[in-house]
Each structure stands twice: as C-alpha cells, then as structure tokens.
Design a protein that fits this description.
The longest helix is centred in the first third of the chain and has 20 residues. Helix 6 crosses helix 7. The protein is 38% helix and 20% strand. The strands form 3 sheets. Strands 1, 5, 6, 7, 8, 9, 10, 11 and 12 form a 9-stranded mixed sheet that branches. By secondary structure, the chain is α+β, with helices and mostly antiparallel strands. It is elongated. The chain contains 16 helices and 17 strands.
Length: 435
C-alpha cells in the first residue's frame, strides 16, 4: 500500500519573514534611505559571507550571544561554523586582513542579514537585516561626532522629529571606573554588574533592584541613584576630586557639547547605557524611541579600538553602529511614516487579439529601450478585467493595444488614478508617464 506523503507546511521557519511584494517594497524603502544617507557622508559599501568560524565570536562577543543565541554547527570538514549574529567582528577581520593595502581613515557600510536564536517578539526576530556603519582610523572625537550625527540624520530622513527619539550617550569608561573605584568591585564583580545593567530594560524594576542588592549589598541605594540619573553632575559627585577626567566624564561632556553645537538637541546622558558587546572601549550611544506604544532602544553602537588585536594586528581606532530593519520598521509604522505601496511597473499594455501579440511585443520592447518599465498583459481576460488587474497591482497607467493602435501609431495612455486619457505617439509616451 502506497502511503500518502504528508503535506509540507507553508509557514516559514519560526522567527524569520517572507517578503511578498508589498513587504519587499517597504524593505527596499528602508534600504534605500540607509544607502542614500550613508553615501552622502562618503561611506562605501562592502560585503561578506554569512558564515564565519565560531572562534571569531568566542574571542570577543558577549558570552550570552555565543552560548545561547548563535546558530552554530560543525561542517562536513569538521570545522566549527556560525551564521553571523553581528557584523562588527567580520569587518574587523577584513580590515585586519588587508590593513597594509587600505587607505585610512576608512568609511565603510554594509547591509547584512544576521541570525540569533532568540524568542521572537516585537522588534526582535531570529533573522534580520541591519545597516552597519563603521569608521576606522580616527582616534579623537571627530569619529563620534560624525557617526552619531549620521545616525541622527538617518532618523530625520525617515521623517522623524526630535521629540520622536532620544540619543542616549554614555562611556564604558565611566561605569567601568565607577564600579571599580567608587563601588570597589573586583573585575569579576564589575563584570557581573555590567551584565546586569545591560539587561536592565528587559527586567521588572523590582527584580533588577533585587539582583543589584545581591551583588552590591549596602551600596545598592547609591548605585541606583547614580545609575538612574540623567544628570552628569550626579555622576561627577560620586567621584573623588581630580578623578573626573580619568573616568571618561570629560569625553562625554565634550561629545554632548559639540553635538549640541551641531544642532542635535535630543541628547540624553544615560549611565545605564552599556551596550551588550564586550569589545566596546569608550563612548557608546543608543537611539531610543520615545513613543509610549514602542518605548525601546532602536539601535546603537560605540567605540571599539581593540578589536583588531584578536588577529595579531596593531589596534586601529574604530567607531560604528548597527541599525536593524525590524526596529526601524516598527518605529515608522507606529508613527504612520511608512510609504504606501506603489509598483515599479509604470504602465500595463492590455493586448486585444492574439493576432496583435508580436506587434505588441515590439511595442513594449521599444518602451523598455526608452527606459520604461512595462508589463504586457496577453492573457485571455477581457480588456476591462485587464485594466482592473493593472489597477490592483498599483500600476499607474494602462495602454490598450489592438489592431487600431497597431495601424495608427497613436496610443491612449490612461491614468488609472485620475481616469484621464491622452493620445500620443510612441516617442511621447515616456514624457506622459513622468508627468
């Protein structure tokens, strides 16, 4: 007896997405703004494989990501391989590999897809795409100012206003210094508190305080006072005199002041901002959505000057960020900033009669040579149904092509939105479509 094969499920793998044309339209819009803005700042695109040796992430990425969130496996050659969970180690590897051939400073960007085994939820999937922007070769604050300004420009290019988002700024140096010198924690204790701070927004306030008390005991109250402050003076008051510069406070002051002079006003000092990756060495920042319906971090980054040492190379100063497509789409959707779907096809040609098919093909080819995106509908539908079909596909114009048009060389171009028609010759059609 022949057994029937079970039907395959039409659902995609959990935590990833299918992009039907309307979704792909939005995705391409997000990508187009990314490319336009970063290229206006002089950044050049690079790319790399989604596969990397697992050791690349074990060396410097956070333990949580490596142990719990990576898609890792052993290939047929016995090598440990990981689907990239982020792009920064990859770009560091690429720069280290050809640093003697490259001209610094480098301004590079990429739009990779990345993979993390996480619980799917709003703003967080198991596969997403992200814009990576990195500057290599500038050790002073010019890179912070340029890259954070670029991040702000990206948000504005999507139509966001200052009040729609905050730019939160901190320095890993500050909390590292305070945990060691003010709260007198050893390296292991400071590391545990740092990881706790990084998870703060994912926890209930009471649970965070309970875990903080377990680590800091009687110092918990003063720790929370510093951590929850958005005032630099509160953090400075926790330091001994003459320790302000050593702690990295001076860097934050300068960054905030110079960004404000550039006209960026929605800046917030945030001692609780850590960013999860272990490779950050200085200023870190985060773009935070202020909408009550979507209060969350959208994206961020920071300075990572030591990453190239993993490859046996002398360090190169670097500053960068990654901006995910899922969180920015949620942001745009919440504020009704997503564009309406429109077809890339400019005109549909509705064929009348199969005997005119070859001439209709020649006609549409002539339009394509003139740079027009055209669909030839040669189906057996009635003309009225072909026009409805074009309208449903959001194609803005339609031309009916039959015996009369074939002989006269005159074509009625109908605007499906307004209902208006104009009669023109072939060489005038392109100008009508652009009107």
């Amino acid at each position: 007896m022949i057994q029937k094969k079970a039907k395959l499920d039409t659902e995609s793998y959990k935590g990833v997405r299918d992009f039907y044309p309307p979704e792909m339209f939005i995705q391409n819009y997000i990508f187009s703004v990314w490319r336009r803005v970063v290229e206006s700042y002089g950044y050049e695109e690079y790319g790399a494989s989604i596969l990397e040796p697992t050791e690349l992430y074990k060396a410097k990425t956070s333990d949580e990501i490596v142990q719990e969130q990576t898609y890792s496996f052993t290939d047929r050659g016995g090598r440990d391989v990981t689907l990239r969970p982020e792009m920064t180690p990859t770009v560091a590897r690429m720069v280290a590999g050809k640093r003697r051939e490259l001209t610094f400073p480098l301004r590079w960007y990429s739009i990779p897809n990345v993979f993390r085994y996480e619980k799917p939820q709003r703003g967080r999937l198991r596969e997403h795409w992200q814009l990576n922007v990195d500057m290599f070769g500038i050790a002073d604050m010019k890179s912070e100012l340029e890259v954070i300004s670029l991040a702000s420009a990206l948000m504005k290019s999507y139509g966001a206003k200052d009040e729609d988002f905050e730019i939160r700024v901190n320095s890993r140096k500050v909390m590292n210094y305070i945990l060691k010198n003010v709260f007198e924690l050893d390296q292991e204790g400071a590391s545990k508190v740092s990881r706790l701070i990084d998870r703060k927004d994912k926890m209930e306030a009471g649970e965070f305080e309970r875990q903080a008390e377990h680590l800091l005991e009687e110092k918990t109250e003063s720790f929370l006072h510093v951590l929850n402050s958005k005032d630099l003076d509160v953090v400075i008051s926790a330091l001994k005199s003459n320790e302000e510069e050593k702690s990295g406070i001076g860097e934050i002051k300068e960054v905030l002041l110079k960004l404000e002079k550039k006209g960026i006003k929605n800046l917030v000092f945030s001692p609780a901002l850590m960013r999860g990756f272990d490779y950050y060495t200085g200023i870190v920042f985060e773009i935070f959505d202020t909408n009550p319906q979507n209060r969350r971090a959208l994206f961020g980054g920071g300075r990572y000057d030591n990453l190239l040492s993993l490859f046996g190379e002398e360090n190169i100063p670097a500053f960068g960020f990654a901006m995910g497509d899922v969180t920015i789409r949620d942001f745009l959707e919440t504020r009704n900033l997503l564009p309406s779907f429109s077809s890339k096809t400019q005109v549909a040609v509705a064929l009348i009669g199969d005997e005119n098919f070859e001439k209709a093909q020649e006609f549409t080819e002539s339009l394509r040579k003139d740079g027009v995106n055209v669909l030839l509908d040669s189906s057996d539908k009635k003309v009225g149904d072909k026009i409805k079909f074009a309208d449903k596909l959001k194609i803005p114009y339609v031309i009916v092509y039959g015996e009369e048009e074939s002989k006269s060389g005159q074509y009625k171009v109908k605007n499906l939105k307004t209902g208006e028609e104009v009669v023109v010759e072939l060489d005038k059609i392109k100008s009508v479509l652009k009107a």
